Amino acid sequence: MIIVMKQGAKKENIEAVIDLVAKNNLKPVPLYGTERTVIAVIGDERVLNKDTVEAMDDVEKVMEVLKPYKLAAREYHPENTIIKVGEGANCVNIGGKEIVVMAGPCAVENKEQIISIAKEVKKAGAKILRGGAFKPRTAPYDFQGLGEQGLKYLAAAREETGLKIVTEVVDPRDVALVEKYADILQVGTRNMQNYTLLKELGKAKKPVLLKRGMWATYKEWLLAAEYIISSGNPNVILCERGIRTFETHTRNTLDLAAVPALKELTHLPIVVDPSHGTGRRSLVSAMCKAAIATGCDGLIIESHTHPEKSVSDAEQTISTEVLKQLMKDFKKVAEAVGRKI
Q: Would you state the pLDDT for residue 6?
């Protein structure tokens, strides 16, 4: 259930509605907008009488939400959510008119490597540096990342370039550690339904980039987002990174229909990862352009000064020089659909 208060509703009337919801052993989640307040009701809302609520002072209307995810639903928050990454004049907004590019290597290898790449992706026009310090890999013998040392190298790259940082957290016990260094905490595809991790991220103050599970439906994906939001962190960015299908030519099947579909279902911003979505560097450019055309709010691209030397995902990583050239094309597509990069 979503309770929409009238424009200019009095504080005491808003609190009366919140109290009524709480007294019925339900969880009220108020959203205080610039013009009106909306209150989401979490729990078995059948115990609340809709007519009784609508009769209360300053209540405009009551909407019943059939979707199992409520806080992530478009009904709860009709306007697009804009996630602010960082503070003050240097913050980066995700979800507005600008399409934000996140670029960098799959893994942080050493300090010189990540700073060098950071400088180049910034020249290309990226606003956020991506790089893995903790790397969950399919094979236990593959490079697993540098851990906290990798986070320190990322922080050094931010200090050097001013770029924001997005990096993955894989263990609930590491959330506070990663949050200490990162600007965005990433949940990888294998952890989309790690509910212990999601609830811990709900306590974080930094935005969360939630990648779609490789077999996840839109509903399951949004329910994962709901775990984070209902635990206290509303700053969730969705990331379409391809799903596992019968096709073997590409690493995954990039589901670009997810972008307009999710725009109908949720107010959360959506970015696209064409690197993991295809697994082929030759396809990255085309998929980036297509993602922009479908209405994505950002791109996350694997890029390296020397892709052939990358310790991870070399076959899907484009060079920073190629990225600089591609950004010119991306800007043209963005302008054609009324956006900018």
A: 94
Residue whose pair of structure tokens reads 């507005």 in the numeric block = 96
pTM more than 0.70: yes
In DSSP notation, 171-216 reads: SGGGHHHHHHH-SEEEE-GGGTT-HHHHHHHTT-SS-EEEEPPTT-
Residue 24 burial by Cβ neighbours in a 10 Å radius (0-12, 13-18, 19+): middle
What span, in angstroms and rounded, lies between the C-alpha atoms of 64 and 11?
23
> What pLDDT digit, counting tens, does each position of 150-196 carry?
999 999 999 999 999 999 999 999 999 999 999 999 999 999 999 99
Give the angle subtended at the CA of 70 by the CAs of 266 and 85, to the nearest 5°: 55
Question: How far is it, in rounded angstroms, from Cα 273 to Cα 260?
Answer: 15
Tokens of 21: 């919801």
Digit-coded pLDDT (tens) for 102-117: 999 999 999 999 999 9
Residues 6+ away with beta carbon under 8 Å from 15: none
263: three-class secondary structure by DSSP = helix
The secondary structure element, H or E, covering residue 336 is helix 320-336
The 3-state DSSP class for residue 274 equals helix
- 145, 135 in Cβ contact below 8 A? yes
Phi/psi region, residue 125 (left: phi>0; alpha: psi -120 to 50; beta: rest), is left
pLDDT at 42: 86
Crossing angle of helices 111-124 and 320-336, in 10° steps, is: 30
Measured CA to CA, the distance from residue 277 to residue 248 in angstroms comes to: 12
d(CA 224, CA 212): 9
Contact predicate 207/85, CB 8 Å:
yes
Domains in the chain, ordered, with CATH? 2-63 (3.30.70.1140), 83-336 (3.20.20.70)
